[in-house]
Amino acid sequence: MTALRVDGLFKVFGRHPDQAVDRLRAGASADDIRASGATPAVIDVSLAVEPGEIFVVMGLSGSGKSTLIRTLNGLLEPTAGTVHVGDDEITALSGKRLREVRQRRISMVFQHFALLPHRSVVENAAYALEVRGVDRRTRLAAANEALALVGLEGQADKRPDQLSGGMQQRVGLARALASEADVLLMDEAFSALDPLIRREMQDQLLELQARLGKTIVFITHDLNEAMRLGDRIAIMRDGRLVRLGTPESILANPGDEYVERFLADVDRSRVFSAGDVMVPTSTVSVDVTPETALAALRERGASALTVVDGEGHLVGVVTGADLLSSSGDVAAAVRPPAARVTPSTSLADLLAPAGASEAPVVVVDESGRPCGLVDSRAVLAALAGSASDGRPPAGSVGDRADQLEGSRG
Amino acid sequence: MAEPTTILAVDEGPLPRVPVGEWVDTAIDWLKDNFDPFFDAVKTGTETSVEGVTDGLLALPPLLFAAILAALALVVRSAVFAVGSLLGLLLIQSMELWEPAMQTLALVLVATLVAIVIAIPVGIAAAKSSRVSAVVRPVLDLMQTMPAFVYLIPAVTFFSIGLVPGVITTIIFALPPGVRLTELGIRQVDRETVEAGHAFGSSPWQILRGIELPLARPTIMAGVNQVIMLALSMAVIAGLIGAPGLGQVVVTSISRLNIGLGFEAGLSVVILAIFLDRLTSSFGERRREGGLRSRLVRRRTAPAAGTPVVAAEDTVPASRPTAGAGI
Ligand SMILES: Nc1ncnc2c1ncn2[C@@H]1O[C@H](COP(=O)(O)OP(=O)(O)O)[C@@H](O)[C@H]1O
Ligand SMILES: [Mg+2]
């Protein structure tokens, strides 16, 4: 069951919105509609967000992200299309019923925090429960818990303006968490913070998410943030959803020029990990003959092998050249790997060891068994995004779900 | 009633004479004929309340009351303001103008209260609805730009001379800034904060009470401050139609060409104006500045704030709009 579902959503501001939707459906472009005096902010967007997922919506300023997220909790009424939160059809609710859904099922964090300056931090955090009519003692207890969750113990009695921006946004986050809604909407929630604080907040959000398993729709115009946080990323352009996929699949296969331009300044070394660029390796035992090892190399079409001892523990790596020049057995040709890493190690952390040694980096799984090799060329190719098919040179990437929505326009 | 021929004959000009004045006369006659019981009720209510407040203000010995007002000044603002207020009030007493000053103060208090009770809801409605705003705005423009004396005439027609027309004209004259600044204050409330209220499921009433009014408070209080200042200036003008108080003293001094008395009465008005202005403008500020009340509040709620308590100065914050009183 999806946590949040959007079907055929349109939002047009200005004159004759319904007519504009009909024309868009019939194939008119956004510019045509604009020429007639209306602003198409969201055009035919459909998507489904799974429970426990961080779903990032990304796009340039004015691409309709805020408009989209505001239809999710009914702050804006769409011109056409439906939004479901769980089983509740938000777009069919109004008045008291809509307020109830907002009080219990879906909460929001704002770009400029939107705290109440005349109330203390804990009263701000308790706001959602107060609106719902929870008694004072219970709601303050819940608010204090939420404040502890975001690391704001001891700040409860301050006023928001006595806190730094990062701390104020933590109050905003605590307010949303205290409401106990499972769906969290975050519109550019970290965009007003400076870069260091922003990173801290991202880490904290990931950590909270791992613990609480909320469903989060996160809006940003910053690709690095999107890549760090998103389980999936939707890219919007001019009101349309032009691309939907995992961060790695989007980076590997941008799909169109717009997305590619977007990707130009992403820090790829933090998006790709060892697991994405490694070549699956063959493993030989340390006591086989060099001929056997060479045969294994050729069969694999690889340039190096991992070598393990009798118990399967990693001894090192051998290259073809090592084997050919070696006089005796494989053990004499083995050299230590450049480093031992796990599949989730980011490329940024591979750069130093891969550059320092001619031997490849060995990737080991949780049980310590070698599962792949990464050489420095693979790292460079992934950073450049230069593999001929637009993918990183070796791909576990293709295995993942890659929902290419494509541009509908 | 009007015969077009005589109207056209007034002048050789190209435009016919439009009989606005006659329409107004007709309307007022009609109101007088049909709403007499209403005007009687208004009259009684106004007289009772203003006279009640006047009696209340005069019930205490002047020195004691001046001391109480000075103490109030200390609590809401500062020691400098308190001392200044005390000296000013004592000066009024020593000029033997205490009774008219209290009559004026009572008139101002009642008129202000009524004006605010009308202005704030109208201001809220105008902030919420552009249509209401579009209707209210020209009416306010009319009320504000019409020369104050013009109000006096119909007020006298309905209520004859004395206290009641004075109060009514004062209310009408003082009302506009209350409406305008309430509307402005609510429209200025940060959009995202109001949106947050909606996003957590607040009702419109919860948003008004919990978000909009508190955040608009400094602006609304600036409006209240201006209402009071305008009420004070009009209360003096109302002396012309026999409203008791300092205005009547001014009128007397004019008719007798008594410059000294006129100056004393004028000075008393200035003292009252400064006192009321400073007092009410400090209600609009955030509880941060130096007054005793804010220091007490701050010490209770935020012990960690760590700012040393310094002797507060009686400074007027730059953000406060200047009071437009015709003093
Ligand atoms: N209330 C509104 N009235 C008219 N146009 C609007 C309104 N809100 C947004 N828009 C327009 O809709 C488009 C998308 O805006 P928005 O959703 O805020 O984009 P983003 O959040 O991606 O920057 C913009 O062209 C914007 O000008
Ligand atoms: Mg936006």
Automatic annotation (TrEMBL), chain A:
Descriptive protein name: Glycine betaine/proline transport system ATP-binding protein
Lineage of source species: Bacteria, Bacillati, Actinomycetota, Actinomycetes, Geodermatophilales
One Pfam family recorded for the sequence: ABC_tran
Domain CBS: 277-334
PROSITE patterns: ABC_TRANSPORTER_1, ABC_TRANSPORTER_2, CBS
Any one biological process term the GO annotation gives: amino acid transport
InterPro entries: AAA+_ATPase, ABC_osmolyte_uptake_ATP-bind, ABC_transporter-like_ATP-bd, ABC_transporter-like_CS, CBS_dom, CBS_dom_sf, Gly-betaine_transp_ATP-bd, P-loop_NTPase
Domain ABC transporter: 4-263
Keywords recorded for this protein, A-Z: Amino-acid transport, ATP-binding, CBS domain, Nucleotide-binding, Transport
Organism: Blastococcus aggregatus
Gene Ontology cellular component terms for the protein in this record: membrane
PANTHER family on file: GLYCINE BETAINE/PROLINE BETAINE TRANSPORT SYSTEM ATP-BINDING PROTEIN PROV, GLYCINE BETAINE_PROLINE BETAINE TRANSPORT SYSTEM ATP-BINDING PROTEIN PROV
Region (Disordered): 385-409
Molecular function GO terms recorded: ATP binding; ATP hydrolysis activity
Regions of compositional bias (Basic and acidic residues) in chain numbering: 399-409
Top-level taxonomic group: Bacteria
Family: Belongs to the ABC transporter superfamily.
Coiled coil feature spans: none
UniProtKB/TrEMBL annotation, chain B:
Domain ABC transmembrane type-1: 101-280
Designated name of the protein: Glycine betaine/proline transport system permease protein
Subcellular location per the Swiss-Prot or TrEMBL entry: Cell membrane; Membrane
Family statement drawn from the similarity comment of this UniProt entry: Belongs to the binding-protein-dependent transport system permease family.
SUPFAM superfamilies: MetI-like
GO BP terms, alphabetized: choline transport; glycine betaine transport
Top-level taxonomy: Bacteria, Bacillati, Actinomycetota, Actinomycetes, Geodermatophilales
Gene source species: Blastococcus aggregatus
GO MF entries: amine transmembrane transporter activity; carnitine transmembrane transporter activity
